[in-house]
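User: Please fill in residues for this 198-position structure.
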């Protein structure tokens, strides 16, 4: 399993970093919008599924399966975690979240990401984190080489570790790039009021 292997990855020597980071940077800058099905596995092994929609810069939405009262949405400025079952909301600046690497095409990933090795020759992985802000956690993005995908890479998913070392694994499927995505996709209903948020 590609993503399981990434959990045990080790750093690649510095000399090999530059071309692989450049290829990943090229992929990230080539993708303007993306949709995919996702499967999320938390530290307890609980699995949730849904649909991810991304639009650069800064916009992402994780729409969970029916019956799950949770929404994660980036509105271009902030990343929101919304739990409608308890009326809770949490906010992080998009640029400071681990997902910032996916959402900001202007980021120079060589400043905060390192390539990690993989046993599979067709897989590239990077680990990204801000050493000055350990509270934002770290993320390992996993790409598979695929000539037909933007920049020759297909994002397969990621493994996120929060500041308490809780692991969440996201696996993607049915990836589609540069499809029409309305800005309305990233509006959401505030769990603490009745009005929508833009």
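Assistant: Residues filled in for all 198 positions:
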């Amino acid at each position: 399993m590609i993503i399981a292997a990434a959990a045990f990855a080790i750093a690649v020597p510095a000399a090999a970093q530059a071309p692989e980071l450049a290829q990943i940077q090229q992929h990230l800058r080539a993708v303007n919008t993306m949709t995919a099905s996702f499967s999320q596995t938390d530290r307890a092994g609980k699995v949730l599924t849904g649909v991810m929609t991304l639009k650069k810069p800064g916009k992402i939405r994780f729409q969970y399966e029916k019956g799950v009262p949770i929404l994660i949405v980036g509105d271009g400025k902030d990343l929101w975690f919304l739990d409608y079952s308890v009326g809770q909301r949490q906010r992080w600046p998009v640029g400071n979240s681990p997902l910032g690497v996916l959402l900001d095409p202007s980021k120079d990933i060589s400043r905060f990401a390192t390539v990690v090795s993989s046993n599979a020759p067709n897989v590239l992985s990077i680990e990204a984190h801000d050493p000055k802000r350990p509270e934002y956690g770290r993320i390992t993005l996993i790409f598979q080489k695929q000539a037909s995908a933007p920049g020759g890479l297909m994002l397969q998913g990621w493994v996120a570790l929060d500041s308490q070392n809780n692991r969440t694994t996201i696996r993607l499927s049915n990836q589609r790039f540069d499809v029409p995505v309305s800005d309305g996709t990233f509006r959401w209903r505030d769990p603490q009021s009745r009005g929508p948020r833009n």
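For context: Residues 1-10 have pLDDT under 50 and may be disordered.
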